[in-house]
Amino acid sequence: MSTLTLGPSRPVLADRIVSRSLTTDVALVLGGAALTAGLAQVTVPMWPVPITGQTLAVLLVGSALGAVRGASSLALYLVLGLVGLPVYAPQSDGGHLTGFAAAASPSFGYIVGFVVAAGVVGWLSERSWERRFPRALAAFAGGSLVVFAIGLPWLAVSLHALGYPSDLESTLVGGFYPFLLGGAVKAIIAAILLPVAWHGADALAERRR
């Protein structure tokens, strides 16, 4: 009889480090949500806008846990914010949007995009895209674009509802162009970290033999 798990049929980084079980999978999903919540609070001054660790966490969690566990982890993160926990990235005044205020905000589409992006990156990682820098960078760049693909239409609809310009150029100026540099930096960081983590996990596995 096979053991019930949420893990992928093809092993990802988490499976190289810990044994598969439903208990382990639940712990990994919880840990991924906690990591995302923690990195979301990290803000680095950068031109043209400060960047947070939120998207970096999405890429790391998706690639390390695989499609199902990664998407589940980010779905949990989304729900935690909706029920009132201050887990999303802070606003410019240092406060946090939660609950209905968060769901009604123009930027909430990006958080929805995190769930899909984690699944996409996890799917690619199940096919070993994250083990070498060039393909890892392509996977993480693709994951970042998924976030924009969902977040930008949401932003446009929100801007229109609020009476602001919502044409394509206005939407890109408000929700895409300012974040390109930061997104590229985070994709590069993730593409460096994952192959290094795999090297360390392989070395640890060899020592255990």
From TrEMBL:
The entry's localization annotation reads: Cell membrane
What Gene Ontology molecular function terms does this protein carry?
biotin transmembrane transporter activity
Family named by the database record: Belongs to the BioY family.
What membrane topology does the UniProt entry give? Multi-pass membrane protein
- State whether keyword Transmembrane applies: yes
Which coarse location class applies to the principal site listed for this UniProt protein?
Answer: membrane
Which top-rank group of organisms is this from?
Bacteria
Write the protein's name.
Biotin transporter
Q: What keywords does the record list, in alphabetical order?
A: Cell membrane, Membrane, Transmembrane, Transmembrane helix, Transport
Ranges that cross the membrane:
56-80, 100-124, 136-156, 176-198
| Entry keyword annotation includes Transmembrane | yes
GO annotation, cellular component aspect: plasma membrane
